[in-house]
Amino acid sequence: MSVATQASNDTKSTDRIEQRLVLRAPRTRVWRAIANAEEFGTWFRVKLEGAFTEGKPIQGKMAIPGYEHMTIEMLVERIDPERYFSYRWHPYAVDPGVDYSAEPTTLVEFKLEETDGGTAVTIVESGFDRIPLARRAEAFRMNENGWAGQIKNLTRYVA
C-alpha cells in the first residue's frame, strides 16, 4: 500500500490549526489508525490506557524523547465510524508543576473522506484563543509543529 501526503495549513488563524493530507490507503485502514487507541498510540507515540469511548476520558504516558514525563488526558467527544473522530485536551501542557485542569481545552478533530486513490484526512485543532494569554502563543506554535510531525508519523504508519 503506497501513501501520498499533501499537508497544508491554509488558514493563518491564531485559534485553529488545520492540516489536510491524502493517504493512499483504504478508509478502513486510516480509520483504525486514528480511532483505535492502541494504533493511535503507536504513531502518536503515547501509551494509552484503555480504549477510545465516546464521552469518556483516556490517558497515557508520552513516548516522545524529552516528553516521557508527560501524561496526557484526552476526553473523547465524538466517534462517527470511518468519518469523524474528536477529542479535547490541554494543548502543550508540558510543565509537571502546573495544574492545567482549570484551563479550557482545545478540540482535535479528524475528518475522513474517500478520494481518488485513497483517503483524505483533515485534522483541525481549535480553541487556542481561549487558552490563557501567558501560554497561548507557545501552545499554538508547539502544537502546529507537533501536528506537522504527527502527520509524518501517521503517513508512515498506514503505509
Write structural notes for this entry.
By secondary structure, the chain is α+β, with helices and mostly antiparallel strands. It has a domain at 16-29 and 77-158: START domain (Alpha-D-Glucose-1,6-Bisphosphate, Chain A, domain 4, 2-Layer Sandwich). Helix content is 27%, strand content 33%. It has a seven-stranded antiparallel β-sheet.
Key terms:
globular, 3 helices, Alpha-D-Glucose-1,6-Bisphosphate, Chain A, domain 4, 7-stranded antiparallel β-sheet, 159 residues, alpha+beta
SSE arrangement:
Blueprint: E1 16-23, H1 27-35, H2 37-44, E2 46-48, E3 57-62, E4 71-80, E5 84-89, E6 106-115, E7 118-126, H3 133-158
Helix pairs in contact: 1-2
Mean pLDDT: 92
Radius of gyration: 15 Å
Corresponding CATH superfamily of the domain at 16-29 and 77-158: START domain
Strand % is 25-35%
The CATH architecture designation of the domain at 16-29 and 77-158 is 2-Layer Sandwich
Instruction: Give me the number of helical elements.
Output: 3
Fraction of residues in helix: 25-40%
Structural class: alpha+beta
SSE string, helix = H, strand = E? EHHEEEEEEH
Q: What shape does the CA trace take?
A: globular
Parts with pLDDT < 50 across at least 5 consecutive residues: 5-11
Strand tally is 7
State the end-to-end CA separation.
6 Å
Q: Would you state the CATH class of the domain at 16-29 and 77-158?
A: Alpha Beta
What is the CATH third-level topology name of the domain at 16-29 and 77-158?
Alpha-D-Glucose-1,6-Bisphosphate, Chain A, domain 4
Tell me the strand order in the biggest sheet.
1-7-6-5-4-3-2
How can the largest sheet be summarized?
7 strands, antiparallel
